[in-house]
Amino acid sequence: MERKKREKREKGKKKKKEQNLVSTVVKGRDNVGQQIKVTCEEIIELVDTGAPLSVPVGGATLRRIFNVLGEPVDNLGPVDTRTTSPIHKSAPAFIQLDTKLSIFETEIKVVDLLAPYRRGGKIGLFGGARVGKTVLIMELINNIAKAHGGVSVFGGVGERTREGNDLYMQMKESGVINEQNIAESKVALVYGQMNEPPGAHMRVGLTALTMAEYLWDVNEQDKLLFIDNIF
C-alpha cells in the first residue's frame, strides 16, 4: 500500500515537471540500405517573460558583438541593459517621416559622383568574392565617423564565424573599434551565425535595426546600418 502511494507521488511530480519542459526528439537515417533510429532528447526549461524580445541600445552597444537576443558574445563581460528596446514595434506614422531629399556625402569621390547615396535611403551592394565589398564598408564606417561624427551598426545574417572574426579584427586594426575607449568606438556588431537556427537569421536584422534606430531617434546621430546579406 505504501509502495503504491510513493509511486503515485513520484508519478505526479514527474507529470508536473514535464508540463514545464519541452522534449525535442530528432530521428535520422544512416543510409538507404540500413535504417536506424537515432533519438536525441534535450530538456529545455521555458520561461514566459510576459514581454516582447528586447535588446540593449545606446552607446553601451558600441564596440560590442551581440547575438539576436542582444546578449554579448565577445567575452568582454556584461553590457549595460538599463536601456532596452523591443525589436517588434509599430512603424512610425507617415507624418513622422522625413520626406526631404538630400544627398549623404560618403567622402568617397567616385561614389558621390557616380552613385550618390540618398540620406535616409537604401543601397544594395552586389559583388563576387574578393572584389572589395568589405573594403568599401570599412571606408564608409570610417568616413561617417570622422566626417559626420556618426556611428554604424553591422548585422551579419548567416555569417560564418571566420568571416565575422575577420571583419572584427579589421575594424580593430583600423581604429573603428577601440577596446580601451568606448567613446572612440564607432560600430556595433550583431550576428546570427550560420550554425544558429533559421529563426535567429530571420530576426537578427531586426535586432540590428533596433540598435540603429535608437542611435538616430534618441541620440540624433548620423548612422549607417549594414545588413550582410539579404537574399
UniProtKB/TrEMBL annotation:
Catalytic activity: ATP + H2O + 4 H(+)(in) = ADP + phosphate + 5 H(+)(out)
Domain ATPase F1/V1/A1 complex alpha/beta subunit nucleotide-binding intervals: 108-231
Enzyme Commission code(s) on record: 7.1.2.2
Residue ranges of the region described as Disordered: 1-20
A single MF term (Gene Ontology): ATP binding
BP GO terms, sorted: proton motive force-driven mitochondrial ATP synthesis
Coarse class of the protein's main subcellular location: membrane
Signal peptide as annotated in the record: none
Protein task: Produces ATP from ADP in the presence of a proton gradient across the membrane. The catalytic sites are hosted primarily by the beta subunits.
Entry's family note: Belongs to the ATPase alpha/beta chains family.
Protein name, UniProt field: H(+)-transporting two-sector ATPase
Source organism per UniProt: Colocasia esculenta (Wild taro)
